[in-house]
Amino acid sequence: MKLNTNELPFPPPPAAVEAIRAAAGERLNRYPDPTGLAFRQAAADRLGLEPDWILPGNGSDEILTLLIRTFCRSADSGGDGGGDLIVSPHPTYTLYRTLAEIQNCPFEAVPLNGDWSWNWERVEAVKQRARLFFVPVPNSPSGTVWPAETLERLIPDDGLLILDGAYADFEDGRLGLDLLNGPHGDRIVLTRTLSKSYGLAGLRMGFAAARPEVIAAMAKVKDSYNCDTLALAGGAAALRDADWLDETVRTVLAERERLTDGLTALGFDVQPSGGNFVFCTHPDGQHSARFDMLKERRILVRYFAFKAWPDGTPDGLRITVGTPAETDALLTALESFAV
Predict the structure, then answer these.
(1) Which residue in 221, 290, 293, 311 has a CA-CA distance of 20 to 30 Å to 239?
(2) Total number of domains constituting the chain
(3) What's the rounded Cα separation, in Å, for the pair 14 and 234?
(4) Which domain holds residue 278?
């Protein structure tokens, strides 16, 4: 039972599957559209933008890589200062640090307060030096959703704020759009993936939304055919099926509430979450032991042990929202745990 990678427990939109089948029978002998125009139009319509504000990517992880390659100088690029600084909060998605290291760019993490709020003294110490500031909304592993006025304070003095919306559809699919359309929108980039809310993790499809000049700069750096024909077709069809998404999100949120209530009844402290997962801790601190017990029963959740987080919990469990049957099995296993 896989509750550790925040995948959707349901099949993707039928319209996406049909579009993939149709594309597979038509023109796989030809290269895909290098600009992904049909997908860009579908993504733009979803967010109320124009297609030249959209850049498709091979999952949103490729978009994160393109941002660094486009806008950051590496430490060995020959310029002054040892490269452009990349920043993210801590704890959060660890890929930000990894991508910075791959591109040989300096990286700094800003430790959050123990309640997952921002320490503004720490933020100000790095914001003026940051070229890219990666912030997931909602955050992972906590599920924290910071309000727009908080996010606006994170915009670097001379750089870009990247609002990574991998889980945005479970809170508000328009998260970050007010900032993108606001007076500082030229320093905002939104990223989205179809791996989570659309159930298309196996397809690898995502995109960036930003001002046209930012998108144009990134387009110069991407590979010619970075998204294949099947992904473009399936992704566009999924984005157009708003009714399917709305119903799926409602189902996930209802099960998230049931999971939260069940964990709370077992004595866990559960963080409020805007994602398709919850982060929880138990007063006895036996998170690693519970993780091992669940793994022995073939129930996979994510165990986090946090380093260099002076104000926060030392560890905890992140659990993906699954089907009702999976929630029942998980709660039954946790109820049987004996310290």
Answers:
(1) 221
(2) 2
(3) 10
(4) 243-335
